[in-house]
Amino acid sequence: MTLFEKIVAREIPADIVFEDGDCLAFRDISPKAPVHILVVPKRAIPRVAEAVPEDAALLGRLLLTAARIAKSEGISDSGFRLVVNNGGDGGETVTHLHVHLLGGRALGWPPG
Ligand code: 5GP
After folding, report:
1. How many domains does the chain have?
2. In a domain? residue 111
3. What is the rounded CA–CA span in Å between residue 49 and residue 86?
4. Rounded distance from Cα 79 to ligand 1 centre (Å)
5. How far is the CA of 9 from the centre of ligand 1 (A)?
6. Is position 109 within any domain?
7. Does pTM top 0.85 for this prediction?
8. Residue 108 lies in a domain
9. Of 97, 101, 95, 69, which is closest to residue 83 (Cα–Cα)?
10. What is the pLDDT of residues 8-26, one digit of tens each?
11. Is 16 inside a domain boundary?
């Protein structure tokens, strides 16, 4: 079971901000911005590089869910960033696909 599957199963506590049948969203334990929320599929896909065409609808739902949460968090108009880290150089540390929703301050580009 992945760390995020344990959060989905409520075996590990998290500050959950949204849930539906396919997705769960909760605040990152180590926030990098005033708003830092992780949107995860309940069904674990290890990383985006391992997603398959059958996952297309679920991947779309993750983005739409993140955009919806950006609105509810009040950062949709000011701007926000969605990040998917993939593999070692990408900064992936949890092997369960997740979209980072970051906002609430001006974010630098490019990332370091
Ligand atoms: P990654 O580096 O894989 O893209 O992102 C993993 C994220 O999960 C990190 O931002 C990290 O702070 C967050 N994280 C790791 N463990 C926990 C946890 O137990 N609870 C929560 N809410 N976030 C976690």
Report:
1. 1
2. no
3. 7
4. 22
5. 16
6. no
7. yes
8. no
9. 101
10. 999 999 999 999 999 999 9
11. yes
